[in-house]
What we know:
Layout: E1 2-5, E2 8-11, H1 14-17, H2 30-57, H3 68-74, H4 78-106, H5 110-137
Antiparallel strand pairs: 1-2
Helix pairs in contact: 2-4, 4-5
Amino acid sequence: MTAPVLGKSYDRPASLDAPRAPRRTGGNNFEKYAWLFMRASGLLLVVLVIGHMFIMLMIDGGVQRLNFAFVAGRWASPFWQLWDLSMLWLAQLHGGNGLRTVIDDYARKDSTRFWLKFLLVVSMILVMGTGTYVIFTFDPNITG
Length: 144
Protein backbone atom coordinates (compact mmCIF):
# COMPACT_ATOMS: atom_id res chain seq x y z
CA MET A 1 0.00 0.00 0.00
CA THR A 2 1.44 3.33 -1.00
CA ALA A 3 0.65 6.73 0.42
CA PRO A 4 1.88 10.09 -0.92
CA VAL A 5 4.13 12.23 1.24
CA LEU A 6 5.04 15.65 -0.15
CA GLY A 7 4.87 14.39 -3.70
CA LYS A 8 6.70 11.15 -2.92
CA SER A 9 5.29 7.72 -2.14
CA TYR A 10 6.46 5.14 0.32
CA ASP A 11 5.52 1.58 1.22
CA ARG A 12 3.68 1.07 4.48
CA PRO A 13 4.84 -1.86 6.57
CA ALA A 14 2.41 -4.77 6.36
CA SER A 15 2.40 -4.99 10.16
CA LEU A 16 0.40 -1.77 10.33
CA ASP A 17 -2.37 -3.24 8.20
CA ALA A 18 -2.52 -6.67 9.84
CA PRO A 19 -1.04 -6.74 13.35
CA ARG A 20 -0.02 -10.18 14.59
CA ALA A 21 -1.97 -10.23 17.82
CA PRO A 22 -5.10 -8.22 18.41
CA ARG A 23 -4.95 -5.94 21.42
CA ARG A 24 -7.18 -7.08 24.26
CA THR A 25 -9.23 -4.42 25.92
CA GLY A 26 -10.01 -6.25 29.14
CA GLY A 27 -10.96 -9.68 30.31
CA ASN A 28 -8.57 -12.17 31.87
CA ASN A 29 -5.58 -10.57 33.58
CA PHE A 30 -4.47 -13.81 35.24
CA GLU A 31 -1.07 -13.89 33.53
CA LYS A 32 -0.34 -10.29 34.52
CA TYR A 33 -1.15 -10.99 38.16
CA ALA A 34 0.80 -14.28 38.07
CA TRP A 35 3.80 -12.34 36.74
CA LEU A 36 3.44 -9.71 39.47
CA PHE A 37 3.05 -12.42 42.11
CA MET A 38 6.30 -14.05 40.98
CA ARG A 39 8.21 -10.79 41.47
CA ALA A 40 6.67 -9.95 44.84
CA SER A 41 6.90 -13.48 46.23
CA GLY A 42 10.48 -13.80 45.01
CA LEU A 43 11.52 -10.66 46.90
CA LEU A 44 9.70 -11.73 50.04
CA LEU A 45 11.17 -15.25 49.81
CA VAL A 46 14.69 -13.80 49.62
CA VAL A 47 14.11 -11.98 52.91
CA LEU A 48 12.43 -14.97 54.60
CA VAL A 49 14.99 -17.54 53.44
CA ILE A 50 18.08 -15.43 54.17
CA GLY A 51 16.65 -14.65 57.62
CA HIS A 52 15.93 -18.35 58.16
CA MET A 53 19.44 -19.38 57.08
CA PHE A 54 21.07 -16.70 59.23
CA ILE A 55 19.10 -17.71 62.32
CA MET A 56 19.61 -21.44 61.78
CA LEU A 57 23.25 -21.46 60.74
CA MET A 58 24.97 -18.38 62.15
CA ILE A 59 23.51 -17.43 65.53
CA ASP A 60 24.32 -19.16 68.87
CA GLY A 61 26.67 -21.89 67.72
CA GLY A 62 25.17 -22.56 64.32
CA VAL A 63 23.99 -25.91 63.09
CA GLN A 64 25.24 -27.86 66.12
CA ARG A 65 22.35 -26.55 68.24
CA LEU A 66 19.63 -27.65 65.80
CA ASN A 67 17.66 -30.51 67.29
CA PHE A 68 14.13 -31.44 68.30
CA ALA A 69 14.20 -29.17 71.37
CA PHE A 70 15.28 -26.18 69.25
CA VAL A 71 12.40 -26.72 66.81
CA ALA A 72 9.97 -27.22 69.70
CA GLY A 73 11.07 -23.96 71.31
CA ARG A 74 10.94 -22.11 68.02
CA TRP A 75 7.45 -23.33 67.09
CA ALA A 76 6.13 -22.45 70.55
CA SER A 77 6.10 -18.86 69.27
CA PRO A 78 3.32 -17.79 66.86
CA PHE A 79 5.84 -15.45 65.20
CA TRP A 80 8.08 -18.33 64.11
CA GLN A 81 5.11 -20.46 63.13
CA LEU A 82 3.93 -17.66 60.85
CA TRP A 83 7.48 -17.14 59.51
CA ASP A 84 7.86 -20.81 58.58
CA LEU A 85 4.30 -21.03 57.27
CA SER A 86 4.90 -17.98 55.05
CA MET A 87 8.08 -19.56 53.69
CA LEU A 88 6.28 -22.83 52.99
CA TRP A 89 3.27 -21.29 51.25
CA LEU A 90 5.23 -18.69 49.27
CA ALA A 91 7.78 -21.27 48.13
CA GLN A 92 5.05 -23.68 47.02
CA LEU A 93 2.99 -21.03 45.22
CA HIS A 94 6.06 -19.40 43.66
CA GLY A 95 7.49 -22.70 42.47
CA GLY A 96 4.09 -23.99 41.33
CA ASN A 97 3.47 -20.84 39.32
CA GLY A 98 6.86 -21.22 37.66
CA LEU A 99 6.24 -24.88 36.89
CA ARG A 100 2.79 -23.99 35.51
CA THR A 101 4.52 -21.65 33.06
CA VAL A 102 6.97 -24.38 32.06
CA ILE A 103 4.07 -26.81 31.50
CA ASP A 104 2.32 -24.22 29.32
CA ASP A 105 5.51 -23.70 27.32
CA TYR A 106 6.44 -27.33 26.72
CA ALA A 107 3.31 -29.52 26.88
CA ARG A 108 2.01 -29.77 23.32
CA LYS A 109 -1.29 -31.55 23.82
CA ASP A 110 -4.14 -29.99 25.77
CA SER A 111 -4.80 -33.25 27.61
CA THR A 112 -1.15 -33.55 28.66
CA ARG A 113 -1.17 -29.93 29.83
CA PHE A 114 -4.36 -30.55 31.81
CA TRP A 115 -3.08 -33.66 33.61
CA LEU A 116 0.31 -32.15 34.39
CA LYS A 117 -1.34 -29.08 35.88
CA PHE A 118 -3.77 -31.29 37.78
CA LEU A 119 -0.88 -33.28 39.30
CA LEU A 120 0.92 -30.02 40.09
CA VAL A 121 -2.08 -28.58 41.94
CA VAL A 122 -2.70 -31.82 43.86
CA SER A 123 0.96 -32.04 44.94
CA MET A 124 0.99 -28.37 45.98
CA ILE A 125 -2.16 -28.81 48.05
CA LEU A 126 -0.76 -31.94 49.71
CA VAL A 127 2.56 -30.29 50.60
CA MET A 128 0.99 -27.05 51.83
CA GLY A 129 -1.71 -28.93 53.75
CA THR A 130 0.72 -31.34 55.39
CA GLY A 131 3.21 -28.58 56.21
CA THR A 132 0.52 -26.34 57.68
CA TYR A 133 -0.82 -29.23 59.74
CA VAL A 134 2.65 -30.04 61.10
CA ILE A 135 3.44 -26.42 61.97
CA PHE A 136 0.20 -25.83 63.85
CA THR A 137 -0.20 -29.23 65.54
CA PHE A 138 3.44 -29.83 66.48
CA ASP A 139 3.60 -31.34 69.96
CA PRO A 140 6.92 -30.94 71.76
CA ASN A 141 5.84 -33.45 74.43
CA ILE A 142 6.20 -36.65 72.42
CA THR A 143 6.13 -39.77 74.56
CA GLY A 144 7.69 -42.85 73.09
